[in-house]
Amino acid sequence: GVVRFRGMGLARLDDAGRRAFRSAVQMVLQDPLSAVNPRHTVGRTIAEPLRHLTGLSATERRARVHALLSLVGLDRSVIGRLPSQLSGGQVQRVGLARALATRPALVVLDEAVSNLDAPLQIEILDRLAVLRHEQGTAFLLVTHDIRLARRFADRVVVLDDGRVVDSSPCRPRLELEHPAARELVDAVLPAFPAGAS
User: Fold this and answer.
1) pLDDT in tens, 130-161
2) Angle formed by the axes of helices 88-100 and 118-135, to 10°?
3) Sign for the pseudo-dihedral over CA of 191, 193, 194, 197
4) Rounded-to-integer distance, Cα 65 and Cα 128, Å
């Protein structure tokens, strides 16, 4: 197949097109520690796309890094720390801040909140939902957790063996029928199991 960005196949992008693509499409990976340079501080990690993909001055980059830390719920005190000095959840939020640095049009979240505890998952997704509404940022959330998809997404698309097998808007009600989709829905444990007192 062909992957297209704004109508142009990625393989056919020139240097300027590749630069525009890198600025407009960012990704947050499931394993936060493999996605950051262990020798770079938090501040340098978040500022990296700003240095390479924007014309911001050093002062403007610093201000943007501070704003991004706040956006993902991290204190400025982490700015000089190395990834090894942070928890996995904090490193994941650093990766998210880095992905949002250039104000991309699309952010791919590949199981990006799966390493976080449930309250933090909800907090981060709620922050991203605000960003989506305020700035028009689009998010593609890749997850096996249908509850997170239902809470965050406008539409759920289910893949099985690399093929789309089902899809549904999340509101007013998620309606999935394919057996692979039903397995995802049925995998959600009830809040209060039957027989629990």
Assistant:
1) 888 888 899 999 998 888 898 899 999 999 99
2) 10
3) negative
4) 17
